[in-house]
């Protein structure tokens, strides 16, 4: 028996919105520790890694490890039928071929359930090595989304260049070029407005706008985003989901031919 | 010119 209950359906809606651009379907691996998902996008350029800890749920029970293959568009349809503040309970029997989502309104006057067929997905798990990154940048998630959106108008790639002075986002295309520089904040009123850079070595890497834009669909999940970079390894874009877990995106850099 | 590597170039299957 698997049962996971979350007080506000909106958190799960935000998670789905954050991954359904990149993934058509995905396997949710459920264990006593929580729910995990790891999947590459269709073109195998990026990797999505989601972890929701069991202690972040209002109620969580997982008697046996289970993998639920789900179509994310179907799941989104179901979650669109819930109100943001509905309590959601995800339920499945051991070895079941369906999963049930139950939504309860706050005043309990409306209870709905949706049963969805599970899919058998070919799982390809990748081992993600521990890396000591040369640069770790923390910045407001909204600011990162804004910069990626703005620069995407001008080019197909964004060069992210991090030094101890700050981080620079650059692009160029048919109409010209664009640069956005962010300095590390020395003082800030709110922690979520801070730009903080931890640099061992300066790094400059190039990434495809298309994927960076897809990652920023996670912006509603967190105030801050963390970018981790080292030469010749994938960028990690991480959003912490408050009290529940994290969503990480890995993106292979573009390299000179 | 730049080329786009795949993520599996960096992370191996387990």
Structural summary, described in words:
- The complex is a heterodimer of chains A (257) and B (14).
- In chain A, β17 and β18 form a beta hairpin.
- A nine-stranded antiparallel β-sheet of chain A has the order 6-2-3-4-19-18-17-11-15. A five-stranded antiparallel β-sheet of chain A has the order 5-1-7-8-9, covered by helices on one side. A four-stranded antiparallel β-sheet of chain A has the order 14-13-12-16.
- In chain A, 15% of the residues lie in helices and 47% in strands.
- Chain A is elongated, with a radius of gyration of 20 Å.
- By secondary structure, chain A is of the alpha+beta class.
- The N and C termini of chain A lie far apart (52 Å).
- Chain B is an all-beta fold and 14 residues long.
- Helices cover 0% and strands 36% of the residues of chain B.
- Chain B contains no helices and two strands.
- Chain B is rod-shaped and about 30 Å long.
- The mean pLDDT of chain B is 90.
- Chains A and B meet through β10 and β20 of A and β1 and β2 of B.
Give the secondary structure arrangement, pairings included.
The complex is a heterodimer of chains A (257) and B (14).
Chain A (H helix, E strand, L loop, with lengths): L1 E5 L2 H11 L5 E7 L2 E7 L5 E8 L5 E4 L3 E6 H9 L6 E6 L5 E7 L6 E7 L8 E2 L7 E6 H12 L4 E6 L3 E8 L2 E8 L12 E4 L3 E6 H7 L8 E6 L5 E7 L3 E7 L2 E3 L1
Antiparallel strand pairs in A: 1-5, 1-7, 2-3, 2-6, 3-4, 4-19, 7-8, 8-9, 11-15, 11-17, 12-13, 12-16, 13-14, 17-18, 18-19
Helix pairs in contact in A: 1-2, 3-4
Chain B lengths: L1 E3 L7 E2 L1
Brief sketch in words of this structure:
Chain A is an alpha+beta fold and 257 residues long.
